[in-house]
Amino acid sequence: MERWSGLTADEMQVLETTFWSSGGSRHGVAERLGFSKSKANGLIAGLVEQGLLAEAGLQRSSGGRRAENLQLNDALGVLIGIDIGATSLDIAVLGPDLRPLAQHTEATDVRQGPGVVLARVRVLMRELLARCGHGAKQVMGIGIGVPGPVNFQIGQLVNPPLMPAWDGFSIRDALREDYTAPVFVDNDVNLMALGELWRLKRSLQNFLVIKVGTGIGCGIVVHGEVYRGAAGSAGDVGHICVDQEGPRCHCGNVGCVEVMAAGPAITRMAVQAAEAGESEMLAERLRTQGRLDAVDVGHAGRAGDAAANGIIQRAGNLLGQMLASVVNFFNPSHVFIGGGITHIGPLFLAAVRQSVYQRSLALSTRHLEIQYTPLGPQAGLIGAGALAMQETLKVRGIAP
Amino acid sequence: MERWSGLTADEMQVLETTFWSSGGSRHGVAERLGFSKSKANGLIAGLVEQGLLAEAGLQRSSGGRRAENLQLNDALGVLIGIDIGATSLDIAVLGPDLRPLAQHTEATDVRQGPGVVLARVRVLMRELLARCGHGAKQVMGIGIGVPGPVNFQIGQLVNPPLMPAWDGFSIRDALREDYTAPVFVDNDVNLMALGELWRLKRSLQNFLVIKVGTGIGCGIVVHGEVYRGAAGSAGDVGHICVDQEGPRCHCGNVGCVEVMAAGPAITRMAVQAAEAGESEMLAERLRTQGRLDAVDVGHAGRAGDAAANGIIQRAGNLLGQMLASVVNFFNPSHVFIGGGITHIGPLFLAAVRQSVYQRSLALSTRHLEIQYTPLGPQAGLIGAGALAMQETLKVRGIAP
């Protein structure tokens, strides 16, 4: 872990650039940093010698010559990425290039409070590290996503509506007992955005990631960086009003998109359709399972159930209505939709697109792409790993 | 004009920093650029000697010692700022520190097309330059704001709804006949945001400027820079829906905030109130003037007219409803409201605030300030001047 004490600012920049362009060439690193070839080559050779960078495999360049694939050296250690959702928990041990070495997913309920949930997280961290032959000492950095507003500087949740017991709790302190590695906490959807940004190697500058699960949130990338807002609550789009006559939300207002189009709303509409005799398929599922969720609605829809398709269309249109406002304001190049909703299938996406294209200005949508998150359910974990690596590099870079 | 050919990158940085912190000290410039005191002093001395910087007046520092007020040298030349609104035209000749040397305002109608409007602009530019003893040769740069979406790179309007005749017209070419200085074109409200950013010396990082006039637009500042979006249409908030049952807008959708709360909507509501006998005061004004506008509604409201106050409240609430969505998404520290609406008085602002605080999340509004633009009607002109100076410095910096 002390390998990188005493590195120069130039060397830290090479490490960071390599991380963000994993598998890139020496030449690419030089170009990105505006360094001469010989300067970059010198720095890279030094870092390879110190065991910080590795030249893995060979990259076939267009001219027929072969260039090395530069990446952070696996020997540096591992990262831990943790993605805590309202009802699910994902943990992974990742290499410095964010390759998952061991991974585990299970159901959880964040309302149990930080004591219960983080005790389980600590057990899983130990198990996963052991599974890939590592211990606490090999951990370079830990990144955690949580489903609520986070004060990023102090790494604490602030007034989280879905998990009030976590308000002001220090997640960092809870993990400090087992690990000396730095711990970084961010909102779950900010991390999905960071994950996609890393996957894209920063090739898109201005895009959004919308997570639709128990709640609805948005990660914002501006000028190639995650934007958190003046108080860290940017992207809190779940309580944008889409119907002045709509139902009351737990936030106190009416017609919030979250109360009308997120997972619980879809379940509620499905149960109503089943009980009202509008859908034999949903009624059958409700009888056999005792409950319904978005996945069931998606299944029924794909099997041609009209009521299910009506629900999907309605939820998609409402989400699209909210997105239209955001697209008019922000003019992103891409909107990626992730979270549990993605299991519902392509009709939902079609309904979102229809509604956005109808309500947004032509100039905002001319080149706008709306699709499901390319990283799928891994987006949050990869983002947590990217946060851990990026911030660890920054912390190390500042230290003497 | 050729004074700054051959300047080094460091020297250009000192000029730019001085422009953005006009009246700051040598020490402040050094600090902002991360230069040592001696390096900064050397650069500044050289630039003063070349006639690019001036040390004007004395700044009393807290320690009792006196430091010089650094600023760009007036001898560099002048800037021209032009703010073309849908119905008004403002032009100013400005010093390098954006002090207006000569200024003119008149009514216009952009629907007359670029030929008519720009011919008048060219006449006024000549007159104003003559009035302060300058000619075309002293003009360093020209900044123009227009009320529609602009492709900033090529300096042209793209599908402007209020001024279709300007679509794709080259404003730059129209002015190139008279001036060799570079011409920069941007959306009017982006320039208001740039103007406020300059006034603030970049001390706020994330804020919005909303212009409410014939239309409604928004300038966005992110991380201390004006944000224009993927296609240059960011901030196009006028067509965000605030009422699914609302009236039809010229964009084709219903219930856009622009068709319900901008200047023409206020006029329409005022005429209706006058004709329906709901307001003797507005009816009297309509009889004597033959027309009504937001200023009349403001006057009547301040004189205690209940119908006028109802209109102001309604327009403010609708604008606030749109802003609530934007505040939830963007979490700015400040929202500055400008444009013709500011003449309506403080009740409008109170109605906007009420609506935003009611509909936005607590975390987004805890430190949120909503006020009229501190630069008032000058915001667009100052922004046009700031654009001209900033981009001219960039262009000069790139040239050999």
Report what the structure shows.
By secondary structure, chain A is α/β, with parallel strands linked by helices. Chain A folds into three domains: 2-75, Winged helix-like DNA-binding domain superfamily/Winged helix DNA-binding domain (Arc Repressor Mutant, subunit A, Orthogonal Bundle), CATH 1.10.10.10; 76-197 and 379-398, ATPase, nucleotide binding domain (Nucleotidyltransferase, domain 5, 2-Layer Sandwich), CATH 3.30.420.40; 201-376, 2-Layer Sandwich (Nucleotidyltransferase, domain 5). Chain A is built from 14 helices and 14 strands. Chain A has helices at 9-20, 26-33, 37-49, 114-131, 171-176, 188-199, 257-261, 263-275, 280-289, 294-302, 306-330, 346-359, 362-365, 379-398, and strands at 53-60, 66-72, 78-84, 88-94, 100-107, 139-146, 150-151, 156-157, 183-187, 207-212, 216-222, 225-227, 334-338, 369-372. In chain A, the strands form four sheets. A five-stranded mixed sheet of chain A has the order 5-4-3-6-9, with helices on both faces. The longest helix of chain A is centred in the last third of the chain and has 25 residues, at 306-330. The model of chain A has no long low-confidence stretch (mean pLDDT 91). At the A-B interface, β11, α11 and α13 of A face β11, α11 and α13 of B.
